Amino acid sequence: MGIVLKLLFASMLLISTSWSQTITVAAAANLKYAVADIAKEFTKSTNIKVKIITGASGKLTQQIMSGAPFDALLSADVEYPAKLAKTGYTTTPAQIYAYGTLVLWSDTGVNLSKGVAIVADPSVKKIAVANPKTAPYGIEAMNAMNYYKVAQKAQPKLVIAESISQVGAYVTTKAVDVGFMAKSIVLSPEMKNVGKWVEIDPKSYSTIDQAMVGLKNGSPENQIAAKKFLRFMSSPTAVAILKANGYGLPKQR
């Protein structure tokens, strides 16, 4: 009997240690690399796995409102999380976790010393911009071009991408001459040696306040785990990763 009990206990222990909870986090495309690193650290400290779905914040919000089983949203703005909170989809209030930075990026040898003004130059034939209807970085790219009074000349050259990730694909394959990109992407290990980029003066576009919320779409257990993940976003570990990826951080951190 002793041996049987030992075997039964061992099998129960194996089941309990092999099972681990998984939450699904919808993240704005600019977070592609940073959130992957944060999720790894979160899993190390909690044994809760994180499945990451990236895309344009507006599209992710539409999916959430259509019932997508996401447990948390890390948006590239405040408006989409606020919309979800107002319509009853959230378990937490919207909280800013970072401030994004807009850059102009090229892998075709375009001279970026002129900054945004270069998009009006005849040498620039195609300009990639994330869809302003669903991507906050796309909205701010348009604002920057308006600020520098080059939007009209740039308009016929625009190539509208689904998200920042697709802008990156257009730039790295040289399908466009320049692209408006999140600084976090060009700083990533995969992209840091690709082409050249310049920061866009922040006075030319609105502050990119990136906010997060927990969601009701998942199970009650996942809602609890998602709140742990959102708290982890304010931890020294996560803050260090965000900072290394070029994000500005709320003062209270």
How many strands appear in the DSSP assignment?
10
H and E order? HEHEHEHEEEHHEHEHEEHH
Overall structural class, as computed from helix and strand content, comes to alpha/beta
> How would a crystallographer describe the biggest sheet?
5 strands, mixed
- Whole-number mean pLDDT: 92
- The CATH superfamily of the largest domain is identified as Periplasmic binding protein-like II
Beta-strand portion reads 15-25%
User: Tally the helices: what do you get?
Assistant: 10
What is the name of the CATH architecture of the largest domain? 3-Layer(aba) Sandwich
Give the CA-based shape: elongated
Assign the CATH topology of the largest domain: D-Maltodextrin-Binding Protein, domain 2
Instruction: Describe the oligomeric state of these chains in a short phrase.
Output: single chain
Total number of domains: 2
Which percent bin holds the helix content? Answer: 25-40%
Strand order of the largest sheet: 2-1-3-10-4
- C-alpha-based Rg, rounded: 21 Å
CATH class of the largest domain: Alpha Beta
| Regions with little confidence, pLDDT below 50 for 5+ residues | 4-18
End-to-end Cα distance: 57 Å
Key attributes of the depicted protein:
253 residues, D-Maltodextrin-Binding Protein, domain 2, 2 domains, 21% strand, alpha/beta
Tell me about this structure.
There is one protein chain. Residues 4-18 have low confidence and may be disordered. Helix 2 (32-46) runs antiparallel to helix 10. The protein folds into 2 domains: 2-99 and 208-244, Periplasmic binding protein-like II (D-Maltodextrin-Binding Protein, domain 2, 3-Layer(aba) Sandwich); 101-204, Periplasmic binding protein-like II (D-Maltodextrin-Binding Protein, domain 2, 3-Layer(aba) Sandwich), CATH 3.40.190.10. The radius of gyration is 21 Å and the shape is elongated. The protein has 10 helices and 10 strands. The longest helix has 17 residues, at 2-18. The strands form 2 sheets. The chain has a 5-stranded mixed β-sheet, sandwiched between helices. Strands 7-6-8-5-9 form a 5-stranded mixed β-sheet, sandwiched between helices. The protein has helices at residues 2-18, 32-46, 57-65, 79-86, 136-147, 151-154, 164-172, 183-186, 220-232, 236-244, and strands spanning 22-28, 49-55, 72-74, 95-100, 102-106, 127-130, 158-161, 178-182, 196-199, 208-214. The protein has 253 residues and is α/β, with parallel strands linked by helices.
